[in-house]
Design brief:
This protein is mainly β. It contains five helices and 31 strands. The protein is elongated.
Length: about 525
């Protein structure tokens, strides 16, 4: 049988093969590749399984028990008596009709007898006549049988809180509200049940496989993990770098499971629909969901993916003993994990010393973007344009821990104090990444741009950028200036790039890396051509 995440558990049939999770590769977007195993304790070749999570479309696979073959797998909806999760004293008594019981009333009296289920009796024949005043509003009946059935149901509802005991002196009818408690005189009392439709999954074998195992694997939803990082900055360019993983389980109970946490950028964005074997949709509903899957996937941008920043630098192949690489993905192993459904388990993944250096970044957008930013400030409306007067204090961190770092939240501490909280981007082993801490208030800036020369509709623009270091330490500053045009020249050995676009002017960029001493004002200049 199938268990859907967030759905009610289904009834487990007698002698059903109980599936248990043995291994799971967990992605950060809430999906996991799960391996399950179940012991076969019956000689029947029709094996109904229970504890099977809902598989994703196209991911449901199985391995037949040794010495047998799976001829077919069937899923269907059947009606079964399912134990009630919550039931009353009356429900319990009626479920044990025919058994000896002792009932204590609210007034202290005790009554012993055999539980008898009262049958709702038909009213007198005259009452069966069709009377519109006694017929529920907007309800129509085609014949007298429907009238009788409706009246029986009404009478049954009126008698629903009644129970009868057959005593030595005759029948006694009691109302539930008058019963304090009841005891059924049998060692194995029946629990109340109700009829429910449940989904079943049946494997048909060509031969019995008693004592063997049935193995299943599927991509399922309901198990995820999130990394979080802490970096304690030292005064010597060394930092203590820690990572922990929070594993969130809404899939199934995990007992001594071999877990692998997946790092990388898995392409799981398409066809994440429940498999038809789960019978969660009709045929029409399934086809409708399938046709809308592309637009749904594009809307559901997962914030838990592994972003790679523009400052990412490639590293070398990881050789950690706890890490396995398969193609472009990395799998961090956590053996013998136990986690019940609904629990969150946190484990430390790694901890070690890394090198870092302080870097300040100043990014200036194009002149037209600066004008739009200034207009938005005057009109008191927000703007998505990067403010041209912000200088960010960052640290450039080198990954020397022999394993990649996946995207997550990073808390940065200095002398035990929180000095920054930001997003960690994917960083390979041996690579480096730039981590923002705070906007610095100790490096005010100035910027200006003028027309140096006009030649028809082509303008030669000249700009000037100035930054003053008011701190007591040297600042290593990376200045990036975007322009709408072709870079011509720049001071201080700036790096330039030019990318074509669909407009008149290409996208130009100047990048300087300069050191600014305490109390010093550093000025850089640039020129570019712009077509009006």
């Amino acid at each position: 049988m199938l268990l859907a995440v967030g759905a009610l558990p289904l009834l487990e049939a007698e002698e059903a093969v109980q599936m248990r999770v043995t291994k799971a590769a967990v992605f950060k977007n809430g999906y996991s590749q799960v391996s399950l195993c179940g012991d076969i304790n019956t000689a029947d070749t029709q094996l109904e399984v229970s504890g099977m999570p809902v598989p994703i479309l196209g991911s449901f696979w199985w391995k037949a028990p040794q010495g047998s073959n799976v001829q077919e797998v069937r899923s269907e909806t059947v009606t079964r008596n399912v134990p009630k999760q919550n039931y009353s004293t009356l429900d319990f008594l009626l479920a044990n009709a025919g058994q000896q019981a002792e009932i204590v009333l609210t007034n202290g009296a005790k009554i012993e007898g055999i539980i008898h289920t009262p049958e709702p009796s038909l009213p007198s024949g005259s009452f069966l006549k069709h009377n519109e005043e006694e017929t529920p509003e907007n309800q129509e009946y085609d014949n007298l049988d429907e009238v009788s059935e409706s009246l029986l149901k009404q009478r049954a509802r009126a008698e629903i809180d009644l129970v009868q005991l057959r005593t030595a002196g005759g029948f006694i009818t009691l109302r539930e509200r008058n019963i304090l408690y009841a005891e059924v005189k049998t060692p194995t009392p029946q629990l109340p049940t109700s009829e429910q439709k449940v989904n079943t999954l049946v494997f048909e074998l060509d031969a019995p496989a008693t004592g063997k195992e049935l193995q299943v694997s599927a991509l399922c939803r309901g198990l995820s993990w999130l990394p979080s990082y802490r970096m304690d900055l030292g005064s010597d360019g060394k930092a203590l770098f820690q990572c922990k993983a929070m594993i969130m389980n809404e899939l199934a109970d995990l007992n001594n499971v071999q877990l692998e946490l997946v790092m990388g950028y898995p392409a799981l964005g398409k066809y994440l629909l429940p498999s038809p074997v789960a019978q969660q949709h009709s045929l029409f509903g399934f086809l409708k969901e399938l046709s809308s899957e592309d637009s749904q996937s594009s809307r559901r941008e997962i914030a838990l993916t592994n972003n790679i920043s523009g400052w990412y630098q490639t590293g070398k192949k990881s050789d950690s003993s706890d890490l396995t690489q398969a193609e472009d993905l990395f799998f961090y192993s956590i053996p013998n994990l136990s986690c019940a459904t609904g629990q969150t388990v946190t484990r430390e993944l790694f901890c070690g010393e890394v090198g870092y250096s302080h870097v300040y970044t100043w990014n200036i957008p194009t002149q037209s973007d600066i004008q739009r930013w200034q207009e938005s400030r005057r009109s008191h409306y927000g703007s998505e344009i990067t403010p041209p007067n912000e200088v960010w204090h960052c640290v450039k961190v080198h990954n020397s821990l022999k394993m990649p770092w996946t995207g997550g939240v990073l808390d940065c501490y200095a002398e035990g104090r929180l000095v920054g909280r930001t997003e960690m981007t994917f960083t390979a082993d041996g690579g480096s990444t730039l981590v923002r801490l705070n906007k610095t208030m100790q490096a005010p800036v100035q910027f200006s741009e003028t027309i140096l020369k006009e030649n028809g509709d082509v303008l030669t623009m000249e700009g000037k950028l100035s930054l003053t270091n008011y701190s007591d330490k040297e600042m290593h500053v990376i200045i990036t200036k975007e322009v709408s045009g072709t870079p011509l020249s720049a001071s201080d050995a700036a790096a330039t790039t030019c990318s074509p676009n669909y407009y008149k002017n290409p996208d130009g960029r100047f990048v300087w890396e300069v050191c600014v001493q305490p109390g010093e004002t550093k000025t850089v200049t640039y020129q570019y051509s712009h077509k009006e």
